[in-house]
Amino acid sequence: MNQKYSFKRKTLPALAMAGPVSIWMILFVTLPMLYIIYISFMSRGVFGDVVYTFSLESYNTLLDSTYFKVIVKSLKAASLTTLLCLLIGYPFAYYIANKPKEVASKLIMLIMIPFWTNSLMRLNSWLLLFQTSGPINKFLLFTGVTDTPLNFVYTNGLVMVGLITSMLPFAVLPMYSSIEKLNKSLLEASADLGASKRTTFFKITLPLTFPGIFSAIILVFIPSLGMYYVTDMLGGGKVLYIGNIIKNQFGAIRNWPLGAALSVLLIVITGLLIFIYTRFAKIEDMEVV
């Protein structure tokens, strides 16, 4: 009787805490994901409806040169966005982590302030800055860098600017958390043994902060593949990535199986990255601040 009471005493609080989260995850994550996977193996009807007949047509379509090129282009763009966010974000995160707590909190607040405004407003500001009569072109004309206004709007370059500025905080925060938790005594020991700052950084700091770096890679790379509104706003319909194709398939074109197949591709990429991460670090290290 006591054992039964002890079991209830231990399990009921755990179920009370995990139960609502589990129900939420099942209803709004697991079931929709399973439905997307199920739809990806169906066919498109004549009028855009879903024909519930098993078919690999959507996955075969992904190998078509048109879609395959978009997928490769999207992966390259997401990789470049991730790389630049790491190159810009790591020094900034390192700088913040070496500041006193009160200063570091203010600097982190500066990172987050742009996200207090609507993302569409931020993207519109880039369009205003880089349009032919905008401040950037006026400055280039005034300094004599160019004789005619340059075309920045609706180009891959401006889309990359939008992606980098949108995703940079998601790279800085996990790297800051990893650097801030670094055991400073290891750095002091390295200096006492005669190692240079460069050697200490590459032999101690960088390897020990790798969990934060990989967290940043996951948090930047995966959303960069699916952020269709950035390419819609700054690409003007001329720049297409996977996210745009998925949106169009579920919206205007109404080819849900193909859109689902592309979504499954993103799910597989996400799962692969998380699997690689768990091979090198603990999942708890993915916390930001």
Automatic annotation (TrEMBL):
Keyword Transmembrane helix: yes
Transmembrane feature ranges: 12-38, 77-97, 109-132, 152-176, 206-230, 256-277
Domain ABC transmembrane type-1 as annotated: residue spans: 71-277
CDD domains, per database record: TM_PBP2
Stored Pfam families: BPD_transp_1
Topology of the protein relative to the lipid bilayer: Multi-pass membrane protein
Family statement: Belongs to the binding-protein-dependent transport system permease family. CysTW subfamily.
PANTHER family on file: INNER MEMBRANE ABC TRANSPORTER PERMEASE PROTEIN YDCU-RELATED, INNER MEMBRANE ABC TRANSPORTER PERMEASE PROTEIN YDCU-RELATED-RELATED
The protein's name in its UniProt record: Spermidine/putrescine transport system permease protein
Source organism per UniProt: Fusibacter tunisiensis
